[in-house]
Amino acid sequence: MASNTLQHLRDLVSPSEIIERDAPAYKDAAAPWSPWADQRPPLVVQPTSLDSMSKVVKFLYDSDLDFAVRNTGTGSVSAKDVILSTHGFKDFDFNESAGTLTIGSGYDWGTVDRKMEKEAPGWQVVGARCTWVGVTGSALVGGLSWLSHEYGMISDPQNLLDVQIVLRDGKVIWASEQPDLLWALRGGGGNFGTVTALKYRARQYPKTVFAAVLFFPYSALSDVSKLVSRMAARTGDPRIAMHVCNRGTAFAEAPQGAKPGVAIMMFDAHGQQHARSDDGFGWFFKHPDAVEWAGGEMGMADVNSLGDSFKHWQGENKFWASAPLLAEIDDETVNRAWKWWEDCINVHEDFQTGSVVLLEFMQEVSIPTRPTKSITADSRQAAMSSAGGRSKTAWPHSERRHVMQLGLGRKTEGAPPSIREMAMKQFAKAGPLIAGPEKDTKEYHAGFLHEWNDVREVYGENFDRLKEIKLQYDPENRFNKGVNLTDEKVTAKATV
Ligand SMILES: Cc1cc2nc3c(=O)[nH]c(=O)nc-3n(C[C@H](O)[C@H](O)[C@H](O)COP(=O)(O)OP(=O)(O)OC[C@H]3O[C@@H](n4cnc5c(N)ncnc54)[C@H](O)[C@@H]3O)c2cc1C
From which residue to which does the signal peptide run (predicted)? Predict the structure, then answer.
């Protein structure tokens, strides 16, 4: 890296748009979620106008600097030389008559949720369930929301309406002018330019919903596994959703060893009464060992804040994640997932301090078994069948899949050098192990990929088209973090 190249970059923008490595603002602007990925580049550039962003993108593209475009860093993106931060892009424009929300690409979803409650009460956009996740990265990898069961994935055409992007030559366009590009941005990983704004569909939605966490001891694991399986068979109601997660440090509790308890995180937009009935989660509430941890009717911003207990891992934990997709949930699925966890703790005891096994249960692709007034014809779709076919978005999804979110990590201090290798080995065997004999889909969510994932397989029949578009918009492969379509691989140190 030539230091005079960095100096040219400094000279291109105003001093207030530069954050040097020794500045107090550097950590917030540059740190990736997992410290393992941190390359501590000397410079963060944070343009605050489109004009400035255009100049910077063109300069970086034509230079030999290694750079990464960053929204929140949750995807653990980093680079050797420069972080190009989008935090200067914070426009917020809710258009009630059009039912749209246009936002700058520098937001996290938690801030958007709070602003929606204030400026657009009774409206929601399909955004991430975790407050710290970025509005841009989550759309680029096909993100998921509590509302996904009803309206589809964050990146789906009915949700992500348009994207403003600065191309490699500094030109600013709305991607809808070039439909192939918009298609590629919907789950294709983002390496086509620098996104500066996103236009989302806003929907009228109840101001409060019911959300709660129910804790079960490890001794109830087999019962819970069966209850989850029955829930998966029974419900087609897109206004309820559920996660099944291990207890322990993810909930800011003490580590629970190789045999942790179970937490059921539930969401019911029909409200408390419905949630506590057998049409909702009554079967779980009735279990004699169930203990309610945090429950009640609340706005979406508070629902999404329930996950904030995970936040203490950010920047502290060497952490990686992988998300194999399951086609079915049977009576043993949760038991098998807990076996995988036990195996991980036996491999490395310290994983219990910074890891998670979380089953994201997805709805049946069907009309709800008990239609209600609030479920309209166009909302009768499940997240995985929501785009209208596998070719409609870059990341193909059209059949019911449950997302098995697996995270392995531990405190950075004292971590053995082989910790990442151990985590990758555990991830690579998780899919077939948890899916059960001969039920492995070999599919992975595009948001949590690693070098051992086959990128061609992840994007399936869409891969060749996606790569062609990539070569058109980035012929020199200068946008190469995360999913590197040109080289058909995932870049290490740029994915969580
Ligand atoms: C603990 C945890 C919880 C999560 N929970 C959720 C969840 O509830 N729902 C969900 O959908 N996902 C969730 N995710 C996954 C998350 O969506 C992805 O990690 C996503 O990539 C994060 O995007 P970001 O913008 O926040 O992160 P970043 O690391 O800033 O960016 C991620 C990727 O997007 C690219 N990118 C970012 N901004 C731009 C831009 N302006 N232009 C071009 N490219 C850009 C980056 O270069 C990088 O490759 C979670 C991840 C973690 C670690």
Answer: none
